[in-house]
Amino acid sequence: MGGYSFYPDKPISQYKKSDTGLIVSMILLWGIGICALYVCSSAYSGKMLGGELTLVKRQLVASFVGFAGLLFFAFLPFSQIRRLLPILMLATVVLLLATFVPAFNEERNGAKRWVKLLFFRFQPSELAKFALILYLANFFDKYQKERNLEERSVFPAVVVMTLFVVLIFAEKDFSTGLFLFLICLLLFFVSGIKTLWLVPMAVIGLPALAMMIVWEPYRMERIAGFLHPEQFGQGVNYQTNASLRAISSGGFWGQGVGSGLTKLNSIPEVQADYIFAGWTEAMGFVGVVLYFVILCVFAYRAYRCSFECPSRFGSIGAFGCASAIFFQSLANVAVVCGAIPSTGIPLPFFSAGGSSMIVTLCMCGFLINAARGGEEIEDDDYGENGADELKVLNEAGEYERL
After folding, report:
1. Which residues pair with 115 in a beta bridge?
2. What would the pLDDT profile of 127-155 be if each residue is shown by its tens digit?
3. When you count CB atoms within 10 A of the terminal residue's CB, does the N or C end of the chain come out lower?
4. Residue 310: partners with Cβ closer than 8 Å, 6 or more residues away
5. d(Cα 324, Cα 130) in Å, to the nearest integer?
6. What's the Rg (C-alpha) of the chain?
7. Residue 192 exposed, middle or buried by CB count within 10 Å (0-12, 13-18, 19+)
8. Which of 66, 35, 28 shows the shortest CA–CA distance to 53?
9. Which residues neighbour 218 within 8 Å (Cβ) at sequence distance 6 or greater?
10. What is the pTM of this model?
11. Cβ within 8 Å of residue 153, ≥6 positions away
């Protein structure tokens, strides 16, 4: 990793202000996501759920919970978040295991990805993304501080990552498990550990992924449909073809929100993974450009918060959250456009589903916290001796080690 550092020395005054660009871009993504959900779900909700606004109301309730989580992770000091991390990890594992218990799980399309919690359904694999990112950020921070080189080992992180990914794969949520695995590999790389550790992970992981693809016939069908789209037009490629027709019908200016989007209605479950097709048909090329401009602004501000955060834990955690939201958005749009094989990954801020909305907003809260420097400079960010090695503010406004 050379001279690259996630932990630059900068004036502490730079870390006490929230990132306005990050907050505004996040709110804009949430707002147009709610608008897109109304466009794509009103016909379905009116016919199947008894009201055109049913799914929108559910999304607003999930947003309320998500914004509460955003405030929690935005203002809680990193030191407190790290103390709560074992509870978060344990709760995530319990929820993942609950998907295999008939009394708690809910099966849809052959997959058991949801658990029934009181009055709502929750998808634990969404929470697993956030929990594992925070765990790895905490682990790599401690790994960097370990002075005895012989005691440095990433084996515990590999075990925890493998446990989470295997549990998600067992739920028949291959897309989320693969995405989480790739995000973890990215964090392994940027954390500065020896790249030698990536070799056995690749040697074991890649054949295992290939076996899982071959094991399920529908996954092979999706790949075959992607490679030979003309042969699967009425089968596995039906959604993608309908999505492409909706996108092309949007033209430059779009058909408008209240124009009765005929192409949109031909896409099954459009309010979920293919919601971007509905946004494109309604808003056209202009809407697509608007979305990507806001998304890129959000990504730029989020990564900037990561690079400038004074806490290594906050820096790596923010990098993981930014990558999870940004790359998941790109992956979903690529599926809708037929650029990659079909997956079940939702579009952050857009797709119907309270679990995705809640976890995405919690990630945004952590990003805001990172932009503010984690609220406080932690003693253990500066060495094993804590207070003995704490930096003090000099006349120039910068930290110096005693």
Report:
1. 105, 122
2. 999 999 999 999 999 887 765 544 567 88
3. C
4. 7, 8, 9, 10, 12, 15, 373, 374, 377, 381
5. 9
6. 22
7. middle
8. 35
9. 236
10. 0.86
11. none
